[in-house]
Structure to design on (561 residues):
C-alpha cells in the first residue's frame, strides 16, 4: 500500500516584529497570518493550522475566524486548529465553529483538540486548572458524539446535559478530521484511541524517537477498542532559511526569548546555545535549517514514528513577516517535495 | 551487582514510565500503578514500559522497598500514607501553580514541596530526587558510571539509609548522585531553583547550587 503523506504549517499567531525589532500590533499580526495562510496554499502546503493562545506574544484566541478569512481566499488547503484548548471551551460551540468553517471552506476543516498545556485560558474563562483532566475527558467524549452527526444525548458534570439535541450546522459529508494532541502522556494516547480520534504528537523537546512506541501503542489501542485504523501526525517547531547558519541566526534569539517568557509558568529551563544546538541537531525536536537539513530530519522522523502527516510550527514572536513568508515558500516549494522524494 | 530493592512507580503519565524504564534497564524489579485498574495500563506497560509489571497501587506498594511518586501534585493526596509506612519514598513531583492550579498547602516559599509531602508521610523516609531533569531528557542524557559526559542528579533527604538507596538508584540509572543534605536542602531542586530543568556535570551543578542565594542558609 502506498502511503499518502500530507505536510502542514502551524502558527500560534506569534506577534510579528519589524526589522528594527519593534513589535507589530496584534491586529497587523492577524492580518499577516491571513496572508501567510493564503501564501501557504500557493507554496503547495497541504494544511494550515492555528493554535489557540491568549497572550500578548501569541494574540490568537479566535483562530477559527482567521481560518474562515483564509478559506475565502483559497481552494485546496485544509484548515484547522492546532490546537483548540477544549478543556476551557464548550464542545458544542467548538463543534459549531468548526462545522461552520467546514461549510465556509467546502469541507476543508479539521480540529486538533488539546487538554491545555498552554493554560492561560483557564483563569480567563473561569476554570480551575486542577480539574483539567476531568474537563478534557468529558468534553472530548461529548465532542466525539457531536462529530457523529444527528441528535445528541449527553450528561456530565462540566456543562449542561443535552437531550436529543439537534446541533447545527449539520455536517455535509460525515465528520471532519479530528485529532487529539498529545505531549507525551501515554494515557492520553489511549484516550484518543478509545474515543476514536486521530493522534497528533506534539514534540517540542528531546529526541523525537522516544515517541515511536506511542504510534504502536495507538495502533494497538485502536484495535483493542474496535476502532478502525487512524493516522498519526507530528507537530514540531522550526524555521527554514537559505542556509543552516541563517536559519539558526534568525531563530535562536527569538526562541530564547519566548522560552524565557514561558519558562516560569511551564517549568521549562531557559535554553542555552548548547541546548539549542542539541535540539536543532539530528536527534532534537527543532527543525531549524536549510531546506535540505529540515527535509532530511522530517523524513527520518515521519518514518521512525509511523506518521503520515507532519506539521511544522513556524514563526516566533519578533520574527518579521518577510522571514515567515520565506520559511513558508521554502517549506512548500523545497522541503515538502524533498521529503516526499526521501520517503519514496 | 544485582540490587534486591523492588520499585513501585505510582503514575503512568509523563514521568512515571521514564523512571520505570530507566530502573528496569538498571536491573531493578519494577511495578507500575495508577489510581485505577492495572488492566487499564496493561497495553501501555507492554509497549512503553516493557519489563514492568502493572499492578494495583496497594499491591505494588506493599511489595516495594522504594516507592516513586510520579503523579500530578494536585492528585497526590489520593495516596494513602498508611500504605507507604516503612518505605523509602522518592518524591519526583513538582509544584507548578500555573499548570497544576494553586494548591494552598504548597503556597509557602519557605518550605519545600517535598517537606510538605513528607509531613503527610510520617512513617516513610522521603527523598526528593529525579524531579529536576525534564522527563523528555532523562533517558537521553543517562550515561554509565565513569562516562566523560555523565551528568549530575541531585537528591535530598533526612534518612541516611534512604538517601543511600536513592543515590545508588540514581547512579545505576545513569547519573552522578549529588547529595544536598536534609530534605530542606532539596528546595534548590525545585522549579525556579538554580538547577531545575538543567542537565549539568557535577562541578557545574555544585557551582550553580553554591551561587544560588537559597543555598546560603
Amino acid at each position: 500500500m502506498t502511503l499518502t503523506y500530507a505536510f502542514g504549517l502551524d502558527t500560534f499567531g506569534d506577534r510579528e516584529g519589524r526589522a528594527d525589532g519593534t513589535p507589530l500590533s496584534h491586529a497587523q499580526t492577524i492580518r499577516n497570518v491571513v496572508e501567510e495562510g493564503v501564501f501557504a496554499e500557493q507554496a503547495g502546503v497541504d494544511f494550515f493550522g492555528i493554535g489557540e493562545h491568549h497572550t500578548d506574544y501569541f494574540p490568537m484566541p479566535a483562530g477559527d475566524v482567521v481560518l474562515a478569512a483564509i478559506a475565502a481566499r483559497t481552494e485546496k488547503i485544509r484548515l484547522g486548529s492546532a490546537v483548540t484548548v477544549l478543556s476551557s471551551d464548550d464542545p458544542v460551540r467548538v463543534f459549531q465553529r468548526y462545522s461552520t468553517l467546514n461549510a465556509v471552506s467546502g469541507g476543508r476543516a479539521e480540529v486538533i483538540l488539546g487538554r491545555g498545556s498552554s493554560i492561560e485560558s483557564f483563569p480567563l474563562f473561569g476554570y480551575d486548572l486542577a480539574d483539567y483532566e476531568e474537563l478534557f475527558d468529558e468534553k472530548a467524549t461529548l465532542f466525539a458524539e457531536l462529530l457523529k452527526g444527528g441528535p445528541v444525548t449527553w450528561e456530565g458534570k462540566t456543562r449542561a446535559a443535552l437531550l436529543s439535541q439537534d446541533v447545527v450546522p449539520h455536517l455535509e459529508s460525515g465528520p471532519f478530521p479530528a485529532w487529539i494532541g498529545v505531549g507525551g502522556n501515554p494515557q492520553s494516547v489511549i484516550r484518543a484511541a478509545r474515543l476514536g480520534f486521530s493522534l497528533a504528537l506534539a514534540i517540542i523537546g528531546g529526541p523525537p524517537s522516544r515517541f515511536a512506541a506511542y504510534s504502536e501503542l495507538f495502533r494497538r489501542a485502536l484495535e483493542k477498542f474496535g476502532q478502525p485504523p487512524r493516522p498519526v501526525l507530528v507537530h514540531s517547531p522550526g524555521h527554514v532559511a537559505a542556509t543552516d547558519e541563517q536559519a539558526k541566526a534568525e531563530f535562536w534569539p527569538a526562541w530564547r526569548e519566548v522560552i524565557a517568557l514561558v519558562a516560569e509558568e511551564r517549568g521549562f529551563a531557559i535554553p542555552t546555545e548548547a541546548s539549542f544546538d542539541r535540539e536543532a541537531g539530528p536527534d532534537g525536536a527543532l527543525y531549524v535549517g536549510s531546506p535540505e537539513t529540515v527535509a532530511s530530519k522530517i523524513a527520518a522522523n515521519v518514518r521512525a514514528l509511523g506518521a503520515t502527516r507532519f506539521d511544522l510550527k513556524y514563526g516566533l514572536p519578533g520574527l518579521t513577516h518577510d522571514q515567515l513568508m520565506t520559511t513558508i515558500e521554502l517549506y512548500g516549494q523545497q522541503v515538502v517535495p524533498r521529503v516526499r522524494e526521501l520517503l519514496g | 551487582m544485582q540490587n534486591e530493592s523492588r520499585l513501585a512507580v505510582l503514575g503512568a503519565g509523563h514521568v512515571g514510565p521514564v523512571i520505570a524504564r530507566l530502573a528496569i534497564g538498571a536491573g531493578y524489579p519494577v511495578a507500575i500503578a495508577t489510581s485505577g485498574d492495572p488492566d487499564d495500563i496493561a497495553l501501555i506497560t507492554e509497549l512503553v514500559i516493557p519489563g514492568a509489571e502493572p499492578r494495583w497501587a496497594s499491591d505494588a506498594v506493599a511489595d516495594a522497598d522504594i516507592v516513586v511518586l510520579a503523579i500530578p501534585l494536585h492528585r497526590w493526596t489520593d495516596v494513602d500514607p498508611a500504605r507507604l509506612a516503612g518505605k523509602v519514598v522518592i518524591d519526583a513531583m513538582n509544584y507548578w501553580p500555573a499548570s497544576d492550579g494553586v494548591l494552598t498547602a504548597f503556597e509557602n516559599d519557605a518550605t519545600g514541596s517535598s517537606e510538605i509531602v513528607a509531613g503527610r508521610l510520617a512513617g516513610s523516609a522521603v527523598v526528593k530526587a529525579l524531579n529536576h531533569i525534564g522527563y523528555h531528557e532523562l533517558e537521553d542524557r543517562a550515561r554509565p558510571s565513569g562516562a566523560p559526559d555523565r551528568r549530575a542528579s541531585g537528591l535530598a533527604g533526612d534518612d541516611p539509609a534512604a538517601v543511600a538507596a536513592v543515590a545508588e538508584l540514581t547512579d545505576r540509572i545513569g547519573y552522578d548522585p549529588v547529595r544536598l543534605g536534609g530534605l530542606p536542602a532539596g528546595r534548590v531542586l525545585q522549579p525556579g531553583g538554580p538547577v531545575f530543568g538543567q542537565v549539568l556535570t557535577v562541578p557545574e551543578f555544585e557551582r550553580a547550587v553554591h551561587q544560588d542565594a537559597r543555598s546560603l542558609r
